[in-house]
Design brief:
The structure is a homotetramer of 379-residue chains. In chain A, 34% of the residues lie in helices and 26% in strands. In chain A, 63% of the residues are buried. Chain A has 2 domains: 131 residues, Rossmann fold, CATH 3.40.50.720; 220 residues, Dihydrodipicolinate Reductase, domain 2 (2-Layer Sandwich). The first copy, chain A, is α/β, with parallel strands linked by helices and 379 residues long. In chain A, β14 and β15 form a beta hairpin. In chain A, the strands form 3 sheets. Chain A has a 9-stranded mixed beta sheet. Chains A and D meet through β7, β8, β11, β12 and β13 of A and β7, β8, β11, β12 and β13 of D.
Chain lengths: 379, 379, 379, 379
């Protein structure tokens, strides 16, 4: 029989659902030696916390996150609250010797991230940041192709994350549903929320970014604040585009916006190498585009790989070829990897330290946008 | 607190996984008044049954399906075994007064289906056949578009289900993994396995089929039988194509094969109406193609609807716009509808009676292929 | 300097434009030893014939097609008139010893086609039927792939030709613009007009068809006749679907309709072989879909080949990779091949004899639809 | 009968073919009151000039471009030579009072462009720069959608032009085929060759660009020079990416490279407005993507408009719906517009003055890439 691991969940919003689902599902599909036991969930409002606990099977609920830290039976703390709360909770959890899974972006900025890195490394606790898209099978397969040398020298890395849900000036900022538009809670706008995903994957796929040059814009300058009830200036970036140079000599082009009409959550990347290119798109996350110049010339073309076969990353655990999985599965894969590594005392990528590198790119991006100059990324 | 309903699962293969997963997930996402309690699973081999029970949380296991019927606490029997076993189990379950969810195709033929229909109707037990693709949100949305009259008079219904997994003559017939190639277990080949899905959706979308004309072929004439260890003639149809006429005057064209290289599980349909057309494809199940002739002429084009918004069928229960779900969700939706209706004493479509209509079309198709003549579908 | 060849064009409608354009363009792009000299055009109305001659550079015009035949300087007669006029003109042209390019379908039926075949073979005049889609580079490339054995044994050939321009009951039949809806002028509806293209390509790609089983429908039963001014019964097939068996053991599925809302001229085919599959679509005629099972498993996918490179059929004569050509180019390629072969005394495919095979499949299809039985194709 | 206009063509390379073809074809499809008469072609090598003249029907040929200017019967001079030769020829042609069609980019830089603008405006001669992609019907339709206000306020303009033909270090620079890699002949690399197209369309679609920030790279640092026979440093930009701000407040992101494996000539743009978005792709130039948020929510999706109908720009002159045109047609449309306007004494866009604006953006881009700073675009 599997060993149990008690989990404390901090947060009961959207991300808490994705993580809770992963804990419920992971052992149904993956053979990991640990079985999550959902011990406590914490959220601001008692009724909602209770309802969340009932739905997902948490044994208890609380409105004080310190209760989770203080519960000695809890071995794994999962942080699914707005970005400005990550640091304090993570520091406490590390001090209490708990493994930590923290939602992205890790922190509000690189300095805060460093503090968190130092805390988990000092406490020697397992730590992972939930850049879940790495574990979409097609994205993992892209990494495999790169590691196998299929692309050769990389020339270009291109990514964007386009949404359209904040175009209306009537969308408020702040509060449960729209804290992402409130600079105090979110730190930044699309940079930390969306580009952080693109940057994490880029660093993983293509190595360090050395320097960046960015432009940001806030199209709607003021919005009603859901908590204060007042119309307040908007402090986040609605759109951010940046150019960059990678250490390996390749060029990067990244863009994110919440003003791209028609795109709900269009995260795409394309990587152009000497021999081959790869493309991916979150709106059809089960497909990978691949072009291989070594194919015979009259048969060359972009291939649309339907990433559903048993020999593709993670897919041996699901259904049969042709039957696709969806968004939430990336979190199940994350849980499977984290629990599997935890059992063996091995780190799981991206650790807090790796996520700090993403944070530092974000910092450089925001600084560049402010100054209008190229910025070197801290390392 | 929700009322529990004890479930007995007969079978531990692929479909039993999809159904078990649905029972585990349904209450996490849907507000249905019943919570499945997994009571017993039955399968031929004890070790496998036990392992299945452990993985999915069944309280007990057995190798004798009659034990499931005899357990008075079990209210719902789920039949996930090869087609030739459906009837006997369903008749017993009906007699025992249990609700029944039966995998498709309902029976080996229309006569057997009729017997099953009469049994459940006599016993007045809830009954549902698992034509799961109806409950892929895009497929349900297609039905909604038709019911809203968006298409107007229908001229054409076209569907195919193309696979390529049996092209090699080395694939055996019979046994756990390949019983679908064994005529004794499966009844027919692609007709019952794949076309049944297409026919079920077509009857739902477009009404009764009056007459059919079919052609079948068995490309590989003999295969090793996994149970007997001998090379035996193949009795199933590897490919089946048929023309038909619907009662509403529209024409149908259906094709299925397991010899379409490059297609893993490409189930597609297209419906052409006077005003609008609809297309769908299982390989991108989260999208619906839609063309509306009433659009202004210079802006007319096929729309690719990303069926992930909260106002689309079932999608309000999942994530946010742009984030797709996958294959197994169709079974979760099925469970949600079935349990919801069960609690209210309402039937869930397709009932055994509705599935019998599909069976009768299959019978006519196979008879036509044998005789080379047009066949009227029994009604 | 190139030798000239005087051309007489019979017809000034849509097809006459495509052919005239080909004669004007062929020497700009292809190195063929003959240069067409446009000598005379013939059409029913003098003013239109004159305008056509002026636009395209014909030296003269006439309203009597016999004048074209009688002009001894004309070596090539091009027949671009409604189907019911092909035979008489072709017989006269053959007798006069002229090379003949005839629009498709060759004749109203197989018997008439045979008469035409005998006439050109007796007269030993060059003869070609304008099944232009064969010479779309992607379609020619498909043939090349098959001939290279890339597909291995063929299991399925699937084609359809879908349009939507006659859905409105207000479209008349007969007359210049809509003679295709008049059974007297066209012989049949979609069968001869559209399916003939699909059948021609299928015979070329996949060899003889042995037997067929078809269904036709006329959705709009009567239409105003543009010539008589009266509402008359519609004699053509609006839609036709047929199943067939090829001599090589593969199965065919063909469909055509003018009632598929959203499809302007969607001619598609897909060929499934043991090792590879091919797909093509007239709406993106510069692309070929290709799946090769011999690719390494994790990189397998349908390739979209952009057929614009210099080593692909005909494309070395056009622009540079990435820059597509269009519809009319298929006629320029046809002219290049015909003139090139003519200069060398070689036949060009499809000859009248080859086109007769297509006609005989059409005959069998129409007979089958009438009788509701399988029909053997005459050979 | 149409009035003739004598044309002198300077150049016999790739672009001279596209322009000559346009002069041959324009009157076959468009009713313009002028008919080009091909009077003289000029090129460096006599044999090639003669062969070009024969193929396209030029009455004479020369190796000295001044002969074209000196021929008083020539009314229209068409400049299809490398960029470094545009200015001198255009100045002479203007002085001689001839209408001028000049290939893009207009000049090597803004200062030179200004000189050319002043010359044509002083001489009051018709002048047009061949940014041909404006006249791809789908691109023109995009402009029409914007002018009709369908998009509302524009937030983003995104364009790229990706190729892969210079990845091999064995491709030489300089000479007939590869002068685009030689900084002396081309002025710049992808910026003037490819981005100029993107910028021209952007200024037309979305108004003036105020400031830019760019990054360029030369991946292969030295190449054999086809003229000198020596390995020489490469002076052009292999890749260029830039951010920009438009006067209307929208943000721009532009990228071009010749190192994007798998893309032959992938020019794409996407425009995101408040109400609607538009996308286009040169690899499928006959389609326009369109998303309209005002569609009913459950039917919203990106539409793929097959731009082949008679009510779409230019398409009423070609075939029937569903039948696509290709690359060279953009030049035919350009010729039709230019000749039509010429006959009426009206300017045709983009004039030299309009093309100068594009040149100034290119200048700012190259300056920014050199300095690493934001640059204001001269106006």
């Amino acid at each position: 029989m599997n060993k149990k691991i008690k989990v404390g969940m901090i947060g009961y919003g959207f991300m808490a659902r994705t993580h809770s689902n992963a804990y419920c599902q992971v052992n149904h599909f993956f053979d990991v030696p640990l079985t999550p036991s959902l011990q406590m969930v914490c959220g601001l409002e008692k009724d909602k916390a209770e309802a969340f606990a009932r739905r997902w099977g948490y044994a208890s609920w609380t409105t004080d996150w310190r209760k989770v830290i203080e519960d000695d039976t809890i071995e794994l703390v999962d942080i699914c609250v707005p970005n400005n709360l990550h640091a304090e909770i993570a520091l406490a959890a590390a001090k209490a010797g708990k493994a930590i899974l923290c939602e992205k972006p890790l922190a509000l900025n690189g300095a805060q991230a460093l503090e968190m890195v130092q805390a988990v490394e000092k406490a020697k606790v397992a730590n992972l940041v939930s850049f879940n898209y790495r574990r979409v099978p097609a994205v993992t397969l892209a990494k495999q192709f790169i590691d196998q040398g299929r692309l050769g020298r990389i020339f270009h890395y291109r990514a964007n994350f386009l949404q359209d849900w904040t175009i209306s000036a009537d969308v408020p900022q702040g509060g449960d549903a729209t804290w992402r538009l409130d600079a105090k809670a979110a730190g930044s706008g699309v940079t930390g929320d969306l580009l952080a995903h693109c940057i994490d994957a880029a660093l993983w796929h293509n190595g360090p970014i050395q320097s960046v040059c960015a432009m940001t814009e806030t199209f709607v300058k003021q919005r009603l604040h859901a908590e204060t009830g007042k119309v307040e200036p908007v402090g986040i970036d609605d759109a951010c585009t940046f150019l960059c140079r990678f250490q390996n000599g390749s060029l990067g082009n990244f863009e994110s916006t919440r003003y791209a009409r028609g795109h709900k959550a269009l995260y795409t990347f394309e990587i152009n190498g000497e021999h081959a290119s790869i493309g991916w798109d979150l709106h059809d996350l089960h497909r990978l585009s691949y072009f291989d110049h070594r194919d015979e010339s009259i048969t060359r073309g972009w291939r649309s790989i339907h990433v559903t076969d048993g020999d593709m990353p993670y897919m041996g655990r699901w259904w049969v070829p042709g039957l696709q999985i969806g968004y939430e599965h990336s979190f199940i894969h994350q849980a499977a990897d984290f629990l599997g590594n935890l059992a063996q005392g091995k780190p799981t990528s991206p650790t807090f330290r790796e996520a700090m590198a993403t944070q530092r790119v974000c910092d450089a991006v925001l600084a560049s946008a402010k100054d209008g100059t190229w910025q070197t990324v801290a390392s």
